[in-house]
Amino acid sequence: FTDDRLLLLAGLASHASMALQKALLYKDQKENAEIASALLDFSRELAAAKGTNEVLDQVVELSARILGAPSSVVWLQDLTTGEITAEAAWGFSGKRLQTLRRSRLDPRLAKGLLAISGPFSLTFDEVSALEGAQSLSEGTPVAIAPLKLVGGRLGCIVAGAPALGDDYEFSERKMRLLEGIAHQSALALNNALSFESLERTFLDT
């Protein structure tokens, strides 16, 4: 290789590096715009919901659709009994739905899991190894997003993975979407729960 050819190669490498950086930047910007748009649509749908039950129904349906998940569940803690039950579900029917409604999560286990600040995923084997967590998965990996609710109430959104085996991994984009969905869902649920609490207080008075 002559000096001229080496200089030419260096120039080509520089141009290729700049082009690659621009392409990656464009990809990131496009992905961020798509995430922002999806979350904006999600918040608009939630804003139209009236009451806790309608908010919950919207959360499970919209989160499953946005994430491309075959199923999703919102688990909430009952402040009276401390039990954590499936308050809303999407993608379940028949015996699967009946079994889910009878399921309970161990509050001690849930408190440990949901202390994590952001969404995380678990394989089916990892779920099976956690005592009292079997209800979270039906044979596939799951993505879990804790909900920050008023009064320290435990809650989370659980999205199931497509039936592609236990080696399925939720992409970074889907986890970022789930984080935004959980944030918007917590705001809507806190508003609905606070309103219902005020309404009960008013009626009691």
Keywords for this entry:
single chain, alpha+beta, 5 strands, 6 helices, 205 residues, 57% helix, elongated
Descriptive overview:
The chain is an alpha+beta fold. The chain is 57% helix and 13% strand. A five-stranded antiparallel sheet has the order 2-1-5-4-3. The longest helix has 45 residues. It is elongated. The N and C termini lie far apart (91 Å). 29% of the residues are buried. The model has no long low-confidence stretch (mean pLDDT 82).
Strand content: 5-15%
| Distinct helical segment count | 6
Give the low-confidence spans.
Answer: none
Q: Give helix and strand order, one letter per element, not per position.
A: HHEEHHEHEEH
* Residue-averaged pLDDT: 82
Distance between the ends? 91 Å
Tell the overall outline.
elongated
The major β-sheet equals: 5 strands, antiparallel
Order of strands across the widest beta sheet? 2-1-5-4-3
Helix fraction by DSSP (H/I, runs of at least 4): 55-70%
Count of β-strands = 5
Radius of gyration: 22 Å
Protein structure class: alpha+beta
List the helices and strands and how they pair.
Layout: H1 3-47, H2 52-67, E1 72-77, E2 84-90, H3 94-102, H4 107-113, E3 120-122, H5 124-129, E4 142-146, E5 155-160, H6 172-204
Antiparallel strand pairs: 1-2, 1-5, 3-4, 4-5
Q: What's a quick, concise take on this entry?
A:
This protein is α+β, with helices and mostly antiparallel strands and 205 residues long. The protein is built from six helices and five strands, in the order H-H-E-E-H-H-E-H-E-E-H.
